[in-house]
Amino acid sequence: MTVRANPTQVLHGRWTRPVRSAVLLATLCLAMAAPAQAQSEIKGRLKWFSAGAMLPDEDFQRQASGTPAIDHTGSLRVLVRADANRKDGGSDSSLRFIADYSLSWLNGDSFALASGAGQQTLDQTPTEDAQRLMRLTWEIDDGRRHRAVHRFDRFALEYRRRNLSVTVGRQAVSWGSGRVFQPMDLFNPFAPTTVDREYKPGDDVVLVEQAFGGSDLQFLYVARRDEYGKVGTDSASRAIKWHGFLGGSEIEVLGARHYLDDVLGFTVRVPIGGAILRTDVTGTRLEYDDDWYVSGILNIDWAFDLFQRAAFGFIEYFHNDFGVRELPARRSELPYPLVTRLARGELFNMMRDYLAVGATYQWSALWTQSLTAIVNLDDRSSLLQTALVYEPSDFTRMQMGITTVLGDEGEEFGGVPVVDGVTSGGGTQAFLQFVYFR
Q: Which among 23, 143, 348, 372 is placed 20 to 30 Å from 3, CA to CA?
């Protein structure tokens, strides 16, 4: 049974309680920093995203509800930043309160199946906190084909003094150098086909950053709940990352305890003429069998002028050591380490070797087009995505595009087997996004 919020509940309960908490915390931050010069900033971002998918005959969603599958997402994001700066004995320090409040409405055919499959790799708007430490998502309405929620996607305090920075609360953390694939980003990475990458979903973290003049060290703790809602170290992440320079190269070294697994990572970025060569390599030792899985990317990108217009291109190779060489006849037969990472949103691909090639070209001051091709080197299926971006002003952006696949049933991009004769994925998706921000 669906429980719907009446206007009184929304006004006096679900809406005002989290907003009131944010205001109180911001006030406390400014009071703690006094005497100081306090500044605050409030910005807004309005987004509409629509996607339509033409599904193949054997797709489970088409068999359940037909085709095309149409989905929509509307969201309002309010960004609050409150800063307090003070001088103490000649040393400057600052305290910042960060809060991003979002109101989201989702509707469409994918939600009727409780799968979200139609948008899961095009639009990653967060709508739940089941595994996060803080429960900062509140449901407004939920129906067979729609859902409305509001939440805090950022809710953190950041303290800075000289070369030290400490952040506590909900904040986004991004590590790694991948353009399409992110083996070193363990915390809510974007899917290869995600359209809107401006705001990454946040986690509940303690992040300490110490700079040493040419290098820096980061300590990170990510708190989570397990599948039973309990908080513990088995579902948490602890990591340390060093970043520095060696000659003209940029180096990063990572050591982490991620859930119950040990992770080691290494990054190198090398300028080569007008291009930059990057590589991320991660080794993961599983807790239950002590096996090491080594994944990584190698990419190169460069910016150049073409017909007196700005252009950009890249090539990226990705090896996924958790993947399989051949897809099984049923999804339930995939290896457990792979299924676990797919479920956690750390991986989005099931096989082992991929090549991505992409380019961006600015047709005019207002129009820019991007094209990305992803090839599965194991089964030779591929995915193509192109998007055209129109920016008529400094505050508005419209993006339209299409994602299509070249592959047969049983191949990863052609349609992953679920059970005999039923697949998931494949087909062609068109999308339209409008963003307004001030």
A: 23
